[in-house]
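Sequence in, structure out. Go.
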Amino acid sequence: MDAFGDYARCYDGIYQSKNYKAECDFLGEIFKTFAHGPIHCILDLGCGTGGHAIPLAQRSYSVTGVDLSERMVEKARAKAAKAGLSITFRQGDIQCLKLGQTFDVVIAMFAVISYQITNVDLAVALKTARRHLNSGGLFIFDVWYGPAVLTERPSDRLKIVETNGERLIRFAKPVLDVVKQTVQVNYKVLRLKGSQVLDEVDESHLMRFLFPQEITHYLEIEGFRMLHLCPFMELDRELTERDWNVSIVAEAV
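Output:
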């Protein structure tokens, strides 16, 4: 089954305002702060349609992108070709990926690790990241932060986006399970032209939220040392219980 399913059709439209350039600037800041040497090659786990891989390649990094969704990978290849960039994109599962090469940095952006629901899935995903890292390399990822999820509580959301003369309307209805540390986000997306419905997508995404001690524990078991935990895109600010998204920097030992 293709990850994200039909949601891939409207993915770029829904997230057209996401500032991938700024997020890659943030990654660059992390590289300068924590890397032991120059960064040449990057593995992007859960690369989606190339939102991070493409601007990173434009900054002269050698990038390999992997995503479970073949539809996402096809879109990423097309976008890279249009930009005149040589990026390796391939379909693959973070649970069993073995590329036979290592990288200076592995990234898993946009809550890819929060899609690893069980303890086994989480451990295997971290093992995959470690397998593809040079010793001393950096693993950078972001997750839903447990204290904030329990403080803020998920709520129904509505997002409306205008794109190419059409309108995308996304309804998100979350269901929180405190015991399992998950939020099931039920999406309905309508694509309209005027009052005509051109497309309708119904999809459910199950997300796990995590806590600092458990993140550190799993990282250490799988061969990492936790270097830094901070609010997403804010390297120098202390975390609070209002920070829903957090970034983690770990080093392969």
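Check: The helical segments are 11-14, 20-34, 53-58, 70-82, 119-131, 146-152, 212-221. The radius of gyration is 18 Å.
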